[in-house]
Structures are given as C-alpha cells and as structure tokens.
Amino acid sequence: MAKKTVYFLCTGNSCRSQIADGFLKALGEDRYEVLSAGLEAHGLNPRAVSIMKEVGVDITSHTSDVIDPEILNRADYIITLCGHADDHCPQVFNKNAIKWHWGFDDPAKATGTEEEIMESFRTVRDSIKQRIERFLETGS
User: Per the structure, how many domains does the chain have?
Assistant: First the structure.
C-alpha cells in the first residue's frame, strides 16, 4: 500500500510548516510522505532550526519551497498552518484530498528580547507537536 502524502502549507515555508514537517517525519515512523511548501519561499528560519534541535529533531536539511501544483494535486492531506495560506492556497487540487487548517501564531513576528522571541517559537513548536501527535493517534 502506498504511503499517504501530507503537504504542510504556510505563507513563507520558513517556520510553522517546517516544524510540522519535521515532527511528522520524526514521530510518524515513515508512515507518510511528508512535504511542506509556502506561497513564497522565505528561507529556513534559523530560530526554527534551533528550537527543533532542542527537542532532537534536525531540520537543517529542509529547504524552503514554493507550492508545487503537482504535489498539491496528488496530496492526500493538505494542511495549512496560517490563515494567509488557508485563504490563498490554490484551490486546484485533488478533490479526494482532505484539507485542514491548523492555525498557529507566527513566531517570526514575535517581538521583545531574544529570550522572549525564542519562547514564542517554543510555544508554537510545542503546540504543533501536540497537533501532530493527535493526528498520528486519531488520523484527524
């Protein structure tokens, strides 16, 4: 049986979609083909790399990619992680795909001291991890 494809989408494919991608690959035990992309490619956020490393997930090899219509059309699950991507995601995709919106605050917009900004990243990371764990447990 072919693995189901999960496509995580965000605005810039730099933080939230990368975190979700990393966690599903790490926790999903190779059950899914996991990909992520953005409406634009903003590059991999170094703080996202850092906070994922703190929990033992290495996303340094990830790339920031723009949505690929071919992948969109074959994905089994299309999951947006920010409202902008949810509103602007191309609507041409596999009609059998399950599309969900898991909204999380953008930690890249956090302000304050470096420690306060990193705490925002950790909060979003932990929320995404909990959502990935629920997906793996329940399939929804």
Answer: 1
Q: Is 89 a catalytic residue?
A: yes
CA atoms within 13 A on the CB side of 22: 29
Q: 14: domain range?
A: 4-138
- 90, 78 Cβ separation under 8 angstroms: no
Both tokens of 123, joined, read 């909060």
Q: 92, 2 in Cβ contact below 8 A?
A: no
Name the average pLDDT for the chain. 92
- By C-alpha distance, which of 127, 117, 119, 140 is closest to 82? 127
Predicted TM-score (pTM) of the model is 0.94
CATH assignment at residue 131: 3.40.50.2300
Asked if 10 is an active-site residue, the reply is yes
The string of pLDDT tens digits covering residues 115-124 is 999 999 999 9
Q: Which of 5, 6, 8, 10 is catalytic?
A: 10
